[in-house]
Amino acid sequence: MNKNYFEVIRPGINTTFQDQGRKSLYHIGIPFSGVMDNRNFLIANKLVGNEFNFPVIEFAYQGPQLKYFGDKINISITGDVKFVLKKSKDVIDGTCYKSFTLENGDELDIISTNKSVYGYLAIGGELDVKYQWSSCSTNTKANIGANDGKKLAINQKINILKINENLSHKNLNYVNTKIENIRVIKGTNFDYFSENGKDIFFKKEFIVSKLSDRMGMRLEGPEIENIVDTNIKSEGLIKGVIQVPADGNPIIMLSDHGTIGGYPKIGVVISADYDKLVQLTPGSKVKFKEVDLSSAENLFRLYDLETQNLISQI
Question: What distance lies between CA 54 and its chain's CA centroid?
Fold first, then answer.
């Protein structure tokens, strides 16, 4: 048996292994999957000295409770997360964006996210996980990826093949911020919608529904009127595309989305806003703002530069 491992005392809600996902498989019906919040993923790995695409444990709302067995190892948690470390008789309040050292018998209890959805646990070393199509990312709808495509379960073990030698502590002064408007470019079926429907899409507020997961985010609000056809011949989808079914309520495709769909597409969330979009909890208000393709590209370059600058500070 591997001498360094975590035992899952409580798996939490929707706790899976994720990296940056799979590329170039849409033609066989396999989406990218991968972490929902890429910036927090990258920061978590850098804090423990991992390579940038090492797998992490992604959790939603309530995280896992884990007990560690083995040699000293560093961990970090990113997002807006409440957690504690249990060391012998001491209970230590955890701080996000900071690395901690765990020793044999220590426990990590990730209690909850705060006014956000996803958090990330990076473990300083190489995890013993299964890769499929060059990624360990778990897609539970298709049973693809690490852990036989399933969420973490109680009493299972997370084995560590190799621990990073450098156990120095690192931290980053970073605060997750909310976004006032989600910026989008027009979708391929934008002209299916009436002028009033278009005005509603860009000027009115929508509410994030409870019917949201890694596959998609359903919104509730004023009906977006379709004047052509509420169904189209199924065609390819991408992450961030916004479909409008017959009820007029938008659905945003997220990381585990289906690769084809038959609802008209009114817009696409720009890549620079995706991390903040996925952290919106049910009941959050959403407003959309139109940008053109050139602006979307420039905004992504700025987002990427900001992310790299943050990582360079660690």
Answer: 15
Q: Which residues contact 199 (CB under 8 A, 6 or more apart)?
A: none
Q: Is the pTM higher than 0.90?
A: yes
Structural domain including 130 reads: 5-163
CA 270 to chain CA centroid, Å, is 15
Q: What is the pLDDT along the chain (314 residues), one digit of tens a residue?
A: 569 999 999 999 999 999 999 999 999 999 999 999 999 999 999 999 999 999 999 999 999 999 999 999 999 999 999 999 999 889 999 999 999 999 999 999 999 999 999 999 999 999 999 999 999 999 999 999 999 999 999 999 999 999 999 999 999 999 998 888 999 999 999 999 999 999 999 999 999 999 999 999 999 999 999 999 999 999 999 999 999 999 999 999 999 999 999 999 999 999 999 999 999 999 999 999 999 999 999 999 999 999 999 999 99
Number of independent structural domains in the chain: 2
Amino acid occupying residue 167: L
Q: Are residues 141 and 214 in the same domain?
A: no
Burial class (CB in 10 A: 0-12, 13-18, 19+), 52: exposed
Distances (CA, A) of 95 to 75, 78, 106, 276, 313: 11, 9, 16, 21, 17
- Cβ burial, residue 90 (10 Å; 0-12/13-18/19+): exposed
Is 97 a domain residue?
yes
Assigned domain for 259 exists: yes
Angle between helices 293-312 and 38-47 (to 10 degrees): 20
> Do residues 156 and 217 share a domain?
no
Do 74 and 40 reside in the same domain of the chain? yes
Which one of 135, 163, 191 terminates a domain? 163
- Tell me the C-alpha distance between 66 and 148, whole Å: 20
